[in-house]
Amino acid sequence: MDILLVLTILVVIFALAFDFINGFHDTANAIATSVSTRALSPRKAVLLAAIMNFVGALTFTGVAKTITKDIVDPFALSNGSVIILAALLAAITWNLITWYYGIPSSSSHALIGSIAGAAISAAGFAILNYEGFLKILQALLISPFIALAVGFLMMSLFKVLFKNASLYKTNKRFRIFQIGTAALQAFTHGTNDAQKAMGIITMALIAANLQTTTDIPLWVRIAAATAMGLGTSVGGYKIIKTVGGKIMKIRPVNGAAADLSSAMIIFGATTIALPVSTTHVISSAIMGVGSAQRVKGVKWGVARKIVITWIITLPISALLAALFYQLLNLIF
């Protein structure tokens, strides 16, 4: 069998593995608040998230096209299949490490940093599409701050609207409302995060001369959506524990405010075809909600550890990808 075809098949397998891991790693963030407030049992929340992720993943392709063409030009890649495979191996490695320790790091940062690191290792810094790459970095960096602000404003609004309401009745109603916000959260996660593996597979098809455009094939969309749905069904209870309880004590009204805020930011990014970190956005929205409730109620020590992981993910994944590329280049 032709070595290029073998590499392409390996890329497809590892890209779907990345989506599967992303499913149980990042989707845990989307349902963490609804589980922690007991609006949904973990089993029902995971099932709901799996279905909504699958639907969301099939609905959009803009983010996938951005991943395909805006970090590096797939038509200009020499040894492109090895570069992409190295990037996937690095991103998967970092995702598994952070999942094992229950740290809600960003799969988006890991993948984007890995693509850049592997490409630079292969062809130097000139290979990067700086305009597109910087646009993606801006979206990744700015979106958590927007989520923090929107979460603060959303919770402030809820406090005004329900200040005279019975706390018991309000929480009971919001617990029911949270089922809808959890579904919305999982749907928006699918519209953005599942796109990343689709973009990677399309890059590999172009690098192997099996495709001449950046359009996302239907089979790629279905395969990536299925992988993410299956990954979600496995669940990520370690991440749920961190996001759903260690940042702040979450009540149903807080969970609903955080879910609505983060879903707005993620879906807004999807509509303008920009990848964002669902982990960053959801965690930041919870911090914003907690700050509006009571600044001292936010466990800033845990939040600081999460932020540190955000910062180090991109450079570490880039370095891992560079090392993986050099190793794979020796083999192939």
Task: Lay out the secondary structure.
Elements: H1 3-36, H2 42-59, H3 62-70, H4 80-100, H5 107-123, H6 130-161, H7 167-207, H8 218-234, H9 237-246, H10 252-271, H11 278-293, H12 300-331
Helix pairs in contact: 1-2, 1-4, 1-7, 1-8, 1-9, 1-11, 2-7, 2-8, 3-7, 4-5, 4-12, 5-12, 6-10, 6-11, 7-8, 7-10, 10-11
How many structural domains does the protein architecture include? Answer: 1
Give the amount of beta strand, in percent.
under 5%
**Can you count the beta strands?**
0
Give Rg in angstroms: 19 Å
- Poorly predicted spans: none
Distance between the termini: 14 Å
**Apparent shape:** elongated
Average pLDDT, rounded to a whole number, is: 86
Structural class: mainly alpha
Instruction: State the share of residues found in helices, binned by percent.
Output: over 70%
Describe the structure.
Keywords: Membrane, Transmembrane, Transmembrane helix, Transport. It is a multi-pass membrane protein. The protein has one domain. The chain has helices spanning about 5-35, 40-60, 60-70, 80-100, 105-125, 130-160, 165-205, 220-235, 235-245, 250-270, 280-295, 300-330. Helix 2 (about 40-60) runs antiparallel to helix 8, helix 4 packs antiparallel against helix 5 (about 105-125) and helix 6 (about 130-160) runs antiparallel to helix 10. The chain contains twelve helices and no strands. The model has no long low-confidence stretch (mean pLDDT about 85). It is elongated. With about 325 residues, it is mostly helical.
